[in-house]
Amino acid sequence: RAIAEREHDATGAEPSPPRKDADDADDADDAREIVIDPSRVIRGEPFVERKSTFQAHVLLGLRSSEEAGAFAAYLKRDPKVARASHNVLAYRKRLASPARARGETSDAGPPGKASSWACDHDDDGERGAGKGLSHLLRVTQSEDVCVVVSRWFGGVHLGPTRFQCINNAARDALVRAGVAKIGADGESGSEKSGKRRVGRES
Q1: Please, are residues 4 and 18 in contact by the beta-carbon 8 Å criterion?
Q2: 3-class SS at 185?
Q3: CA separation for the pair 38, 99 (Å, rounded)
């Protein structure tokens, strides 16, 4: 599915949240036969930045790109996640054989290692956010993992700060899941930025 993108102006102003469309239903149909085991799902702690709420969700032991799509569909069974303004996704999986032979996208991986990787992302309307998550997975050497960051827009435009919030939410969840090999001992991104933690939301 083509990634839906919205144009930003030269000042970096943030457009209004997108409307959901029939593509979400198509994604659910494509992933219908793949069952996600809840024991493989790690949910990050939600936090608030200027009325917008951010929360990351991590799938461990990613087996295929199709399973990444199934994970997105699984999360959207929760009405709260389905109502999110954006559900930004990225995944990174180590391949047993060279990526080109499988027609997959690959990245270089850690220096000095001859591994091939399948990796992709979906901005879900938040242009550039998925690419940022893909970069985060690479620099933290997270592998066989899919991360989705949900954002519930609170009415206040955050500008470029929203990308930092998305990455901080993902990094904290990757550390919590034990898959981030670099930066795992660093200070929590969300607490470092002084964001207000929240509990369960209705």
Answers
A1: yes
A2: coil
A3: 29
Place of tokens 């090999």: 181
Amino acid, res. 53: T
Contact 85, 152 (CB under 8 A): yes
Nearest to 28 by CA among 65, 74, 87, 90: 74
Dist. CA 99–CA 59, nearest whole Å: 21
Question: How far is the C-alpha of 11 from the C-alpha of 21, rounded, in Å?
Answer: 28
| CA dist., res. 155 & res. 168, Å (int) | 20
User: Tens of pLDDT along 26-79?
Assistant: 555 555 588 999 999 999 999 999 999 999 999 999 999 999 999 999 999 999
Distance CA 125, CA 90 (A): 14
